[in-house]
Amino acid sequence: MEQVVIQDIYRQFQQYLDEHLPVRFPPTKSGAEIRFLKKVFTPEEVKLAMNLSVLPEPLERIFDRVKESGISYEELEKKLDTLVQKGAIMGGEMTVGKKGEKQYSLAPFAVGMFEFTPLYKTIAITKDFVEAAHEYMDEVYYKEFYKKDTPSQMRTIPIEKSITPEHHISTYDNIKQIIENLDGPIAVARCVCRECMDVLGHSCSVNDIRETCIGFGNMAKEALKSWGAREITKSETLELLDKFQELGFILQPENAQNPSYLCCCCGDCCANLRMVKQFPRPAEYFSSNYYAEVNPELCTGCETCINLCQMNALTIENNHSNVNLDLCIGCGNCAATCENGAISLKKKEKEMVPPKNQDAMYQKIMMKKKGLGGTLKMMGKMILKKKI
Question: Has this prediction a pTM greater than 0.90?
Answer without folding.
Answer: yes
